[in-house]
């Protein structure tokens, strides 16, 4: 007798989508912490270790006892040595550390330090009823220590990095005598100099930071100078203003992330409260910057992003990866409390792949359409403040949801698909269970579909998510009189099964039902055109329980019609098995069906291949 569980496992392995979804953050390796855990950033030391720093503490973010610790791992983050205090928990707040490895293997750690032990700062009313903000981890002094033993210990003395006053400092309630700032941007080196990002803050109030902009602290000699007292610093860019939001944008421009391009120019991406992330380039080592613009895909469409960390990294192969959350637009920009509402919805995480191209003034980055890379099954869980680590040809991402920080190995084929997205052509064979070329019959037998979950072998015999999925890949031609009609329908008389139908507003909708639970999601309004041969891919991803549509090679992102181009289906949907026969509308010219979720890159490649 054949073992059905064994058959399921072998099928999943063949498709690269096992029941243990690597994208689910709970499957990552935990980085130890005290309770709160933030900014798990890593460098590889000269003795082969991964050296991580995190901001941690026994309380919540911003509470007393918050401090910086470091940890070492010799097995790519699977296990960690005992944490080492960079600053003690019983001292003033020490927060938001980043690392830099210098010549000879010395490692520097840079962080906020409440050296003066200030217990409150002036904030806006009515957010702070008495006019004082008592969270004091984003002000004070920016300092560093160093390690000459690969992070096993740190220098006893901390050194302060001087910051040049900008207009935003002089306009704060203390005229710059107390500076408001923090940092999440990784330090980097270029042409013998080191650069450490810093995010200057104008004040505290609704949304916590009420205005912000980015600067770079540059040292021309830190990479080689052994005496910390002799290290020199300057604050860039030149002038009175840092990196700000695009013209007409809001007062928030923060969490700047920098990459060095092959021609030596700098790329910077950062968050705003305008519903989109923004970017800029510098061709003179950060002394001046182009006018900021909102991030776009290579096809010119705007990327959506809330007020969350969005980082870009240059990989060792010279290509780029960009972490963001793929929603926002005017629904954040026009919200009356956009400073606050923009913090929400950091699950799932999406990645875009970048490749260099020639621009009018030097190299620029062209960004692919995105893929889901990490998620939690709980939609309220938020993950952020990542780092990219490459080791032995493998790719790893760190992240934190403020309580647990983790390391995740990333499937390299996901990244290759995005980097090659502009050239890839052809329909995938993996997981293909039905392939109908024209003329397409009016009815066809429905292949057996796997359930989305089953009873587990745990002691409580509870739910086990199988991370399965469904993808429908169609070519069709619509006529105006046939709007609001069915394209595919496998539903029984009592509604069990799935259907794909057009809607009156020029979209296509998928219906998923198991007889007790029904979910629906549609493509963006107006995404279908009358009389035109079009390609539609509806993707049902059972890991994060998300539906996406790719229409004519473009992933729906909501446009101005809605904040989200992707939608969640009910995680209690057990199956979409319905009638043994599926009815097919006369407008379908070609149809493929997969018993798994397709990646965005696969859907685009299928479109490029044609009917």
Structural class: mainly beta
User: Radius of gyration over alpha carbons?
Assistant: 26 Å
The biggest beta sheet, please?
Answer: 7 strands, antiparallel
* Continuous helix count: 6
First-last Cα distance: 40 Å
CATH class of the largest domain: Mainly Beta
**Which stretches of 5+ consecutive residues score pLDDT under 50?**
1-18
The mean pLDDT is 95
What is the correct CATH architecture of the largest domain? 6 Propeller
Task: Count structural domains.
Answer: 3
The amount of beta strand, in percent, is 35-45%
Number of strands: 43
The CATH topology assignment of the largest domain is: Neuraminidase
Helical residue percent? under 10%
Principal-axes geometry comes out as: elongated
Tell me what you see in this structure.
The chain is mainly beta. The chain folds into three domains: 208 residues, Neuraminidase (6 Propeller), CATH 2.120.10; 181 residues, Neuraminidase, CATH 2.120.10.10; 178 residues, Jelly Rolls (Sandwich), CATH 2.60.120. Helices cover 7% and strands 38% of the residues. It contains six helices and 43 strands. The strands form ten sheets. Strands 29, 33, 38, 39, 40, 41 and 43 form a seven-stranded antiparallel β-sheet that branches. Strands 30-42-34-35-36-37 form a six-stranded antiparallel β-sheet, with no helix packed on it. Strands 12, 13, 14, 15 and 16 form a five-stranded antiparallel β-sheet that branches. β6 and β7 form a beta hairpin. The longest helix has 12 residues. It is elongated and about 80 Å long. The two termini are 40 Å apart. The N terminus is likely disordered.
């Amino acid at each position: 007798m054949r073992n059905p569980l064994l058959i399921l496992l072998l099928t999943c392995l063949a498709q690269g989508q096992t029941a243990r979804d690597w994208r689910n953050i709970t499957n990552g390796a935990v980085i130890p912490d005290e309770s709160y855990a933030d900014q798990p950033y890593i460098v590889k030391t000269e003795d082969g270790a991964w050296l991580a720093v995190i901001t941690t503490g026994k309380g919540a973010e911003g509470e007393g006892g918050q401090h910086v610790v470091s940890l070492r791992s010799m097995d790519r983050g699977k296990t960690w040595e005992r944490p080492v205090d960079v600053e003690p928990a019983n001292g003033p707040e020490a927060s938001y550390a980043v690392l830099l490895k210098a010549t000879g293997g010395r490692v520097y750690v840079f962080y906020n330090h409440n050296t003066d032990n200030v217990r409150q700062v002036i904030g806006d009313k009515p957010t702070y009823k008495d006019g004082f903000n008592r969270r004091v981890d984003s002000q004070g002094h920016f300092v560093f220590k160093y390690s000459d033993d690969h992070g096993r210990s740190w220098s006893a003395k901390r050194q302060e990095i001087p910051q040049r006053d900008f207009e935003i400092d002089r306009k704060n309630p203390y005229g710059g005598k107390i500076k408001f700032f923090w940092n999440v941007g990784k330090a980097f080196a270029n042409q013998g100099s080191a650069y450490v990002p810093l995010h200057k803050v104008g004040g505290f109030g609704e949304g916590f930071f009420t205005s912000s902009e980015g600067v770079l602290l540059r040292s021309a000699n830190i990479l080689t100078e052994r005496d910390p007292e002799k290290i020199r610093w300057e604050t860039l860019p030149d002038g009175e203003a840092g990196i700000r939001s695009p013209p007409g944008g809001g007062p928030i421009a923060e969490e700047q992330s920098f990459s060095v391009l092959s021609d030596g120019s700098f790329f910077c991406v950062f968050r705003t409260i305008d519903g989109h992330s923004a970017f800029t380039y510098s061709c003179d080592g950060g002394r001046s910057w182009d006018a900021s613009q909102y991030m776009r895909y290579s096809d010119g469409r705007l990327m959506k992003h809330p007020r969350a960390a969005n980082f870009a990294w240059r990989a060792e192969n010279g290509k780029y990866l960009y972490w963001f959350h793929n929603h926002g637009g005017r629904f954040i920009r026009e919200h009356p409390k956009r400073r606050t509402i923009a913090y929400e919805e950091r699950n799932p995480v999406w990645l875009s792949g970048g490749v260099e191209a020639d621009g009018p003034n030097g190299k620029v980055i062209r960004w692919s359409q995105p893929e889901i890379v990490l998620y939690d099954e709980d939609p309220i869980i938020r993950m952020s403040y990542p780092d990219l680590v490459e080791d032995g040809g493998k790719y790893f991402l760190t992240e934190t949801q403020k309580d647990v920080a983790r390391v995740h190995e990333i499937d390299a084929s996901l990244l290759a698909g995005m980097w090659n997205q502009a050239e890839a052509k052809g329909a995938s064979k993996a997981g293909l269970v039905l392939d109908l070329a024209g003329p397409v019959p009016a009815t066809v037998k429905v292949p057996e579909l796997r359930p989305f979950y089953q009873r587990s072998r745990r002691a409580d015999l509870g739910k086990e998510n199988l991370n399965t999925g469904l993808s429908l890949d169609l070519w069709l031609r619509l006529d105006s009189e046939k709007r609001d009609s069915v394209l595919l329908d496998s539903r029984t008389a009592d509604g069990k099964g799935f259907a794909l139908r057009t809607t009156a507003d020029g979209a296509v909708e998928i219906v998923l039902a198991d007889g007790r639970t029904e979910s629906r999601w549609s493509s963006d309004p107006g995404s279908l055109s009358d009389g035109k041969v079009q390609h539609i891919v509806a993707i049902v991803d059972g890991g994060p329980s998300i539906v996406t549509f790719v229409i004519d090679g473009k992933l729906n992102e909501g446009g101005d019609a809605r904040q989200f181009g992707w939608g969640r289906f009910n995680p209690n949907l057990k199956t979409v098995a319905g009638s043994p026969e599926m009815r097919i509308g006369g407008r379908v010219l070609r149809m493929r069906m997969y018993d798994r979720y397709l990646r965005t890159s696969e859907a685009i490649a299928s479109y490029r291949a044609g009917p």
